[in-house]
Amino acid sequence: MRLLQLNDVQKSYQPGIPVLKDINFSLDRKECLGIVGESGCGKSTLARCILQLEGLDQGEILFEGTPLHNKTERDIRPYRRQLQTVMQNPASSLNPKLKIRHSLMEPFRQYGAQVSLTHFQHGSEEEMARQLMEAVELSPDLLSRYPHELSGGQKQRISIARAISLEPALVVLDEPTSSLDVLTQMSILKLLDHLRDALDLSYLFISHDLLAIQALSQKILVMKEGQIVDRFEKGDLFAHERHPYTKQLVSLFD
Amino acid sequence: MTLLSVQNLTVQAGEVPLVKGISFDIQKGEWLAIIGQSGSGKSVTASAIGRLLAPNLKARGKALYNGKDMLRFGAKEMRRLRGTSISYIFQDYQGSFTPFHTIGRHFDEFLKAHFKLSKAQRREMAEQTLESVGLQPEMYTRYPFQLSGGQLQRSSIALALLTKPDLVIADEPTAALDSISAFKVLRLLADLQQETGCAMLFITHDLRHVRKYADQIIVMKEGAVVEKGDKQSVLDQPQHAYTRSLMTASPSLSAASQLLKGDDTSCVYCN
After folding, report:
1. Per-residue pLDDT at B268
2. Which of B139, B164, B189 is the C-terminal boundary of a domain?
3. Does A249 touch chain B (CB under 8 A)?
4. B132 and B6 belong to one structural domain
5. Which pLDDT score is estimated for B267?
6. How far, in Å, CA of A101 to CA of A187, rounded?
7. Please, what is the average pLDDT of chain A?
8. B229 domain residue, yes or no
9. Any idea which architecture A4-253 has in CATH?
10. Would you give the distance in Å from CA A90 to the centre of its chain?
């Protein structure tokens, strides 16, 4: 069974102006699927729909065969720990008034008792925090700091640690590296690649950066104006049967 | 011919040095790229040359523009230079526009300040310039919030090139755009540079934005120049480990698959 499957998903915010049109794709366990597209192509709306932060107009989103879409918040709750996200702006993902420890351990406090962990050792909150910091290669000293005392890259590592803390099946990465400089971008991509392997995660990786997409994903979808215009395995990016838009992107980046 | 010669430029915030005595020249019509990470002093360098430093920062050294030291210019001389010879493009395109004025009004103010033209002439010139950066003349009547980031950055490029300057200082003009719009804007900038023959001081952290268009490259780290030279020699034979790590972090697309493989030490510079 597919981990995630989208069938004919349609979404609009204003009548007559579709943001997502006929979106069909699936994602397997331990796979990283990249979605590349320009600002305004609908890729973040797609992420929000999958995360159940937005409802759908039509179509279905199946998680291990179970429909997720248009469920009540109460019915969604058990799935939230399986479905985590890392967003673009690490500064706004962390509450500026809370210490890092507090923000990091929020999912664990919410769900920790009910969750059986396979990769992390189930322990006290302090023990969990230490393991998570180690997983994202940060010093545990940062736990007692406030977000403004951390660099952008460090904050993004905290967001990643929080997203993986309950060992979710799927992490939706919505432009996780776009607000970082290139060296930090690369270190974050490396970390994500390593964690996927170590914790058996699946990623839906959304970015406008074809280079990052090509580096991290196994399969790639190209979105334009709310539609998927091209789909291929990573190795086929330069193949001549690519869609003209994909070719245009390749020529811009190369 | 040397257009701008920066000699032993130092910028300090109180006792803290942000730029530590750097020197470089820009020839007429040349594209010089300064690359470095956040905090390397590259933007402060650009601001110092443009006399745009915050009041708490003090610049010393020389910035000779056609042989005259800009750092010693009075406000009036500087204004004349800014209107006609030097212009700027900033990263924060939103901050470059007044939110409650139309795009057209920005052009009009600019043209009024620097040229003697009739209202109709100004409008015509503004619309032509908008078209030259790939925007429809209708944008003239729009407000900044009605434009996308890429469109706004195109508008600020249009404004910057309106007076046909000899030198354009572009401080991370593409950093706030999505990378697809960024590459398009970059290509536009390169085309316009070819057309007008202006020199370009281009600040960026992304080597990918340098590969195609730059003639000369300066690599900055912690306020100092660690490497400089013509593009080919810097890219082919980077001398400094920092330059090499910047290069690994922004490979060509065909090498992207290998980006995450292997162990390297570049993360020493991260976080």
Report:
1. 35
2. B164
3. yes
4. no
5. 40
6. 22
7. 93
8. yes
9. 3-Layer(aba) Sandwich (3.40)
10. 13
CATH number at residue B224: 3.40.50.300
Tell whether B42 and B169 lie within a shared domain.
Answer: yes
Q: How far apart are CA A182 and CA B250, in angstroms?
A: 7
Q: What is the ipTM of this complex?
A: 0.71
Structure tokens, A179: 């607000």
- Identify the band that residue B174 occupies on the pLDDT scale cut at 50, 70 and 90: confident
| A39:B150 CB<8 A | yes
Segments forming the whole domain that contains residue B135: 99-164
Q: How far A9 CA sits from the closest chain B CA (Å)?
A: 25
Say yes or no: B264 and B187 in one domain: yes
Q: Of B25, B20, B78, B55, whose CA–CA distance to B199 is shortest?
A: B25
Q: Which residues contact B67 (CB under 8 A, 6 or more apart)?
A: none
CB contact under 8 A, A214 and B270: no
**Is residue B174 located within the same domain as residue B70?**
yes
- B1 — pLDDT class (breaks 50, 70, 90): confident
Total residue count of chain A as it appears in this document = 254
Give me the phi and psi of B172, to 5 degrees please.
45, 55
Picking from B177, B254, B270, the nearest residue to A187 by CB comes out as: B270
pLDDT of residue B114: 85
Nearest to B62 by CA among B16, B109, B111, B6: B6
Hey, which residues 187-226 in chain A have their CB within 8 Å of chain B? 187, 189-190, 193, 208-211, 214-216
Residue A194 phi/psi, 5-degree rounding, is -65, -45
**Within this chain, do residues B226 and B253 fall inside the same structural domain, yes or no?**
yes
